[in-house]
């Protein structure tokens, strides 16, 4: 994904030279589709030239994303997505495979749509499985022996079952 930006900057500078930075490349690209945002940007003097310098700087500095701490990496990838959103809004070019590849820098392990759906609908979230015994039953009674938590003091004999992976076997 990062190579895409580096190669794009290399192509811009190789094919257009340093003149690419001050050429009317973005002006030509925004006039053709004629979106409302592109028309607004074209009215601001020198904005598109400054944007071209910014685009090349952004593309050349993009490998820094792999060196950033997670919080800054997330903000940088957010900037990458906002850059592509503006690109789509102004010159109507979309790089969908590239946008999908950028998700490799996102903490997708924290995306839990089923948990979010349960919270939105008000359904109870299942309690995490632990081997810590519950404090006291809510009615003040005792827990029946067939419902006692496994490994919470050895009340139940599990001689016919293998120990769970990662848990020490009691003597």
Automatic annotation (TrEMBL):
Keywords: Membrane, Transmembrane, Transmembrane helix. Residues 126-171 are annotated as: Disordered. Residues 126-145 have a biased composition (Low complexity). The chain crosses the membrane at residues 47-68, 80-108. The keyword Membrane applies. This is Vitamin K-dependent gamma-carboxylase. It comes from Micromonospora zamorensis. The lineage of its organism: Bacteria, Bacillati, Actinomycetota, Actinomycetes, Micromonosporales.
